[in-house]
């Protein structure tokens, strides 16, 4: 603890210095205000004893400068004075003085005053230290939040391309949203969305949204079913989240035709299917626990399916909406929500949120508020990028012997090989169909000599395949060869499939009778290929498929 | 290649989902999937969202199901077909016998 004594009279200085040093204070001395300020710039001072009348710079002038040098931390300035009038006291206070000590000095009073002021200074120093720490942490958190916010906004980016299907409104109670709303379209044209509500709100609640969104987008891009998506999300959140945290969720898929909805609902308030007037046509209750609670083998996949019409809309909202309280502590509740939906023709989510806010009389929001309304619309065809095809012509052949016929699935492998040719992969379902029909004809009728008529008997369909299986186990000498030629200049694929059988009669394929259990394959071959020819013997077929 | 089935919460809809390849290799398991269709089942959905390939044997299996369930089920819906599979169903005029979504 260092005391600065500022006095132009050497005797006073010596007296004070001696008295204070006896009490273990470190003492520095200046003879006028200017010297005092110089000294303060050089060394740290905790208490200043300041004479009023001094040459060069008097106490009244020096005091504000000393205070300024002290900065944010309290530096007690105690005036040494012989003046007794009120006016002088007031002036001392006005220039920043904190206290007075009268000459001649009373040792007890001086020491008490210095101790008291020193204590205040210590508290002020501590407070200042804490303030600096707080500022540091605050800045640190601000910076971290900015980074996280950036990541979130990129990860959960909701492009506006779905505005036709869906109107939604999210209003987080704090900077980060513990609710999430995700939308995506599958390759089959189905529209998917997920409304999730993590326990609590703010950043802690929002972290789960990152892994959840990745999984959602990845699985929708594969066109997975809603319960499979729920299962996957549940597994990941169960692993990642602490046990007191979970995520209520509604995962909904609107089919490409816009006519059917399937939904997996866990721990969410009821969803409503409403008509144009806003009347509830159907209520969908959650059947499951929220995501992130149950283990994989406890998880339930049951899904809700419903048929919907074009003018109907599906409303989903997190519990923040119905649990919003007004000043009387009353909740918004389900009946007010239904009333709100009815209050206007084709109400928007924005309007619903406004009604919720006016109900709560605009008091501070307690939880994240999220609501989404899906329009049950058929999917619009997405513009497809033109397919690029390989320019290299090539051909190859495979010989499939009895052993391979019995033990392998050559068509799937062949399709996989062909799919490696640039562009051909887009046609793999059709190529599979052509090869599968031709190959199975070769196996069933060529090599095994089975008769399709069996399929028309009572239970003949199953019998046929049982016979086939039995015949395969007895197969010894057989060969099926498949020749494939890729002709890029004509955009064609040619297949020649021949078998070692004695040939079979081609049944009349013009018969459109759906009841017949055979002939469909051949008609499919004719429809899907641009040319198909059998040899006279009936054990070789040439199929030409156009890639255009 | 695999098959899974799933009943809706109210037991009214049975969904059969086929992954990968839909052909005669599934003949037994496909038949088993609808073997225990009960009285409360109103509708069967064949979900082809994960089906990459099908051939005429799959069509045969679908018709066989239709025949077996004719007395108990009104609608059999085939959903989430990829475009090429949808075309196969259309060529085979399956839209006349099934509800293709």
Automatic annotation (TrEMBL), chain A:
One Gene Ontology term from the biological process aspect of the record: phosphorelay signal transduction system
Q: Which residues form a coiled coil?
A: none
Gene3D superfamilies of this UniProt entry? 3.40.50.2300, Histidine kinase-like ATPase, C-terminal domain, PPM-type phosphatase domain
Q: Which organism is it from?
A: Pseudoalteromonas amylolytica
Q: Which UniProt keywords apply?
A: Hydrolase, Phosphoprotein
Q: Residue ranges of the Response regulatory domain?
A: 2-118
Instruction: List, alphabetically, the Pfam families matched.
Output: HATPase_c_2, Response_reg, SpoIIE
Q: What is this protein called?
A: Fused response regulator/phosphatase
Among InterPro entries, the record links this protein to: Bact_Sigma-Reg (IPR052016), CheY-like_superfamily (IPR011006), HATPase_C_sf (IPR036890), HATPase_dom (IPR003594), PPM-type-like_dom_sf (IPR036457), PPM-type_phosphatase-like_dom (IPR001932), Sig_transdc_resp-reg_receiver (IPR001789)
On this chain, the residues bearing 4-aspartylphosphate are: 51
Question: What GO MF terms are annotated?
Answer: phosphatase activity
Superkingdom of the organism of origin: Bacteria
The upper taxonomy is: Bacteria, Pseudomonadati, Pseudomonadota, Gammaproteobacteria, Alteromonadales
TrEMBL record, chain B:
| PROSITE patterns for this protein | STAS
Alphabetical list of InterPro entries matching this protein = STAS_dom, STAS_dom_sf
Pfam families from the xrefs? STAS
STAS domain residues: 3-101
Q: Which Gene3D superfamilies match?
A: STAS domain (3.30.750.24)
Gene Ontology MF terms in the entry: anti-sigma factor antagonist activity
Enumerate the CDD domains for this protein.
STAS_anti-anti-sigma_factors
Q: Which domain of life is it from?
A: Bacteria
Which spans are transmembrane here? none
Provide the protein name.
Anti-anti-sigma factor
């Amino acid at each position: 603890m260092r005391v600065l004594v500022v006095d132009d009279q050497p005797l006073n200085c010596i007296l004070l210095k001696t008295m204070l040093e006896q009490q273990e204070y470190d003492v520095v001395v200046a003879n006028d205000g200017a010297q005092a300020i110089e000294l303060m710039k050089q060394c740290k001072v905790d208490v200043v004893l300041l004479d009023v009348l001094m040459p060069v710079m008097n106490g009244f002038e020096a005091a504000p400068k000393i205070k300024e040098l002290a900065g944010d931390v309290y530096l007690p300035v105690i005036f040494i004075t012989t003046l007794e009038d009120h006016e002088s006291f007031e002036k001392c206070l006005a220039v920043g003085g904190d206290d007075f000590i009268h000459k001649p000095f009373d040792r007890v009073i001086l020491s008490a005053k210095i101790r008291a002021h020193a204590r205040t200074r210590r508290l002020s120093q501590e407070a200042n230290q804490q303030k600096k720490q707080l500022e540091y942490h605050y800045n640190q958190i601000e910076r971290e939040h900015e980074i996280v916010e950036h990541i979130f906004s990129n990860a959960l980016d909701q492009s506006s391309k779905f505005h036709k299907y869906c109107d939604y409104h999210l209003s987080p109670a704090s900077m980060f949203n513990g609710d999430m709303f995700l939308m995506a379209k599958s390759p089959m044209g189905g529209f998917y969305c997920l409304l999730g509500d993590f326990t609590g709100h703010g950043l802690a609640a929002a972290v789960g949204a990152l892994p959840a969104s990745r999984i959602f987008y990845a699985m929708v891009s594969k066109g997975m079913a809603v319960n499979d998506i729920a299962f996957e999300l549940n597994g990941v959140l169960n692993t990642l989240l602490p046990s007191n945290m979970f995520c209520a969720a509604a995962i909904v898929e609107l089919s490409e035709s816009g006519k059917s909805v399937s939904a997996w609902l866990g721990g969410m308030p009821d969803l409503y299917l409403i008509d144009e007037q806003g009347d509830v046509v159907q209520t969908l209750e959650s059947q499951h626990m929220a995501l992130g609670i149950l283990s994989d083998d406890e998880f339930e996949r049951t899904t809700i399916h419903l048929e919907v019409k074009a003018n109907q809309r599906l409303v989903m909202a997190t519990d923040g909406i119905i649990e919003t309280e007004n000043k009387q502590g009353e909740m918004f509740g389900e009946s007010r929500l239904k009333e709100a939906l009815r209050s206007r023709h084709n109400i928007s989510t924005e309007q619903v949120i406004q009604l919720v806010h006016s109900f709560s009389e605009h008091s501070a929001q307690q939880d994240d508020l999220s609501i989404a309304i899906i329009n049950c619309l058929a999917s619009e065809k997405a513009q497809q990028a033109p397919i690029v095809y390989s320019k290299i012509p090539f051909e190859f052949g495979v010989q499939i012997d009895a052993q391979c016929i019995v033990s392998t699935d050559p068509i799937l492998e062949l399709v996989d090989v062909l799919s490696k040719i640039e562009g051909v992969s887009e046609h793999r379902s059709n190529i599979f169909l052509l090869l599968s029909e031709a190959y199975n004809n070769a196996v069933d009728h060529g090599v095994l000599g089975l008769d399709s008529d069996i399929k028309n008997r009572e239970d003949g369909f199953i019998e046929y395949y049982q016979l086939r299986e039995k015949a395969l186990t007895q197969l010894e000498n057989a060969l099926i060869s498949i020749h494939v030629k890729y002709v890029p200049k004509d955009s064609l694929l040619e297949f020649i499939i021949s078998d070692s059988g004695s040939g079979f009669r081609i049944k009349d394929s013009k018969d459109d009778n759906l009841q017949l259990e055979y002939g469909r394959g051949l008609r499919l071959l004719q429809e899907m290929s641009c040319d198909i020819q059998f040899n006279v013997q009936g054990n070789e077929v040439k199929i030409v498929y156009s890639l255009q | 290649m695999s098959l899974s089935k799933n009943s809706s919460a109210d037991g009214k809809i049975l969904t059969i989902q086929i992954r990968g390849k839909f052909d005669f290799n599934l003949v037994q398991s496909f038949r088993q999937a609808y073997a225990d269709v009960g009285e409360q089942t109103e509708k069967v959905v064949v979900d082809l969202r994960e089906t990459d390939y099908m051939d005429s044997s799959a069509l045969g299996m679908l018709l066989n199901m239709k025949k077996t369930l004719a007395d108990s089920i009104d609608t059999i819906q085939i959903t989430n077909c990829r475009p090429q599979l949808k075309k196969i169903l259309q060529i085979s005029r399956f839209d006349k016998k099934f509800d293709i979504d």
